Amino acid sequence: MKKIQILLAEDEEHMGELLREYLVLKNYLVDWYVNGEQVSKYFSAKRYDLCILDVMMPKKDGFAVAKEIRQKNTHIPIIFLTAKSMHEDLMEGFASGADDYITKPFNLEELLLRIEAILRRTKSVQVELSPEKLFHLGSLLFDFEKQTLTTDDKTVNISLTNKEAELLRLLCIHKNKVLDRHFALSTVWKEENYFNARSMDVYITKLRKYLSADPSVAIINERGKGFKLVS
Questions:
Q1: CB 3.0-4.6 Å disulfide test: which of 70, 89, 192, 206 passes with 84?
Q2: Rounded to an integer, what distance in angstroms lies between the CA atom of residue 9 and that of residue 136?
Q3: pLDDT single digits (tens) 153-190
Q4: d(Cα 18, Cα 16) in Å, to the nearest integer?
Q5: Is the pTM of this model over 0.70?
């Protein structure tokens, strides 16, 4: 079986070495970089399966690096390592394309469990949701497998992140019906808590922006219930 290749970006030497050795012992392949510029330079040189990015790095921080990675690869899962716990910082992380975060100091086993959960979710989401892969939303075509939202004439051609695609597919499956907020959180984020709930709100806002290309398509808030995709 092919080993999972992880990109690790951590500027603190002791922490970086500890994480690399631990993950290698757990049978992962790990490339460790000590600043954001190295990640920008070498990310495309290999086919990585997951990225772990420290937020506070010299030369280029984790948020900026994540945005660059998302421009090159909309699918790869990203976990942020952060010493910050302020709401605004976490929302910036999710907006830049993060799938999860873990606050320092943390238990190595907790990080491993989060990695395993994200990898399982990435592989199994198609089975969990539905066999459908193509959805027509007015003049827009959502291709879940390719993670794209396009029009026939390609005037709209948007690449979606993993979570954007997962959430939009869930909305499409429930089109013109209420998608329960709790069900969406447990299905896409696997855990219902304050930060995941705020993260989902960020993703709903982003999806609304993408879908605004066709005025006949909208995501409506159902107060106290969830969301409804109308088309």
A1: 89
A2: 39
A3: 878 889 999 889 999 999 998 899 998 888 888 788 87
A4: 5
A5: no
Q: Are 166 and 206 in contact (CB under 8 A)?
A: no
Q: How far apart are CA 130 and CA 120, in angstroms?
A: 16
Count of C-beta atoms within a 10 Å radius of residue 156: 17
Contacts of 15 (CB under 8 A, 6+ apart): none
Reference 103, options 119, 122, 79; nearest CA is 79
Element housing 83 (H / E): none
Among 39-53, 110-124, 165-179, 214-228, which stretch is predicted with the lowest mean pLDDT?
A: 110-124
Q: 185-190, long-range: CB within 8 Å, 24+ apart, which pairs?
A: 187/128, 187/129, 188/163, 189/163, 190/117, 190/121
Instruction: Extract the tokens encoding 42.
Output: 């070498």
What is the phi-psi region of residue 193: left when phi exceeds 0, alpha when psi lies from -120 to 50, beta otherwise? beta
Domains in the chain, CATH or no CATH each: 5-124 (3.40.50.2300), 130-230 (1.10.10.10)
Beta strand spans in 75-199 (E): 78-82, 100-103, 134-137, 140-143, 148-150, 157-159, 178-180
